[in-house]
Amino acid sequence: MAPTPDFDAYRSEFPVVREQLYFNHAGVAPTSRRVVTAMHEWSEDLLLHGVRYERGWEERVERTRGLAARIVGASPEELTFVRNTGHGLGLIAEGLDWRPGDEVAVATSIEYPSNVYPWMHLRDRGVSVREIEAREGGVTPEAVAAALTPRTRLVALSSVQFASGHRTDLDAIGALCERAGVLFCVDGIQSVGCVPVDVKKSRIHFLSADSHKWMLGVSGVGLLYVARDVLPRVRPVLVGWRSTTDLWNFNTLHFELRPDATKFEEGSHNYAGIYALGAALGLLLEVGMEHVAARIQSLLVHADTQLRSLGCDTGPSPEHRAGSLTFLPPGGEGDVKALAAHLTENRVSFSVRRGRIRVSPHFYNQPEELDRLVALVRGFSRR
Prior knowledge:
34% of the residues lie in helices and 14% in strands. By secondary structure, the chain is of the alpha/beta class. The protein has 2 domains: 19-31 and 289-381, Aspartate Aminotransferase, domain 1 (Alpha-Beta Complex), CATH 3.90.1150; 35-286, Aspartate Aminotransferase, domain 2, CATH 3.40.640.10.
């Protein structure tokens, strides 16, 4: 691993730190100056030159596709741009050749709705959702194994559960799915940009993630990975000029779908969003995902130790942690609403998920900022 970067040197990229203690990257992250500059670059080009340099926009799209492939361990041909995580998951849910009686295994009791509703929507095609039992706020390989039946066609899981912060053992579950001959679909929005992701190592067939959380991008653009060997099995729900092999020929009809993941891109790109995504991914790769993950873990250990010393109930345990830490104040669930109001009044950005306060720092945050959070919790508890 390369030498540890100077994390504080990147703080100037995130002026939000002047205004808030920002620990809400598992919700909606602030973006960076680089991202705003990239979006402005495209907007200024359009303003001054119209479509004159459109081919340059296309080159930037493909560079961004390459960065997206690097950050998940795929090839560029397996990556397509989507509007958001749910859009990507929906393309898979609606595009597979389901048969009546097929099952999708999902932990509906803990999953974010975007990874439940697309599978429920298949009921009128004879596909049923089979429950994976949630254990300690997460999904274990054992629970997945217990849910599989001869009719299970696909397992749909989040890489990290949004409410509890529990990290899924993707490698073990991917191996399990491979042995069972079951497709493995992952909602990766809580891991891509937070921890290293390797879709090949984890034997993942599909992964979808929006950029407005850990990737430090903006809303409205994300990535969908579709493994090369299953690409022919997924029918595009929507098609347009960009889905075809002769996409720049507008004068002659030649309806032949592209053989790679770009067949899912039916029309004109969200260039501003893709420029933003490219800048965001470039920043993360510059820092190095191993360094990003280690820094986040260090910050969470620092916060966890201090919060527990105050009598807070914290989770998940370190071995199941990705980027989020949840806690209850010493007074328990009854004090969560009041503490949340207290933190908000003191310009702390966080989330409340299923009755617990969730904090999710990123690599540019400092231990001292978490000390200030702990001091606010301590002051509240002493009132």
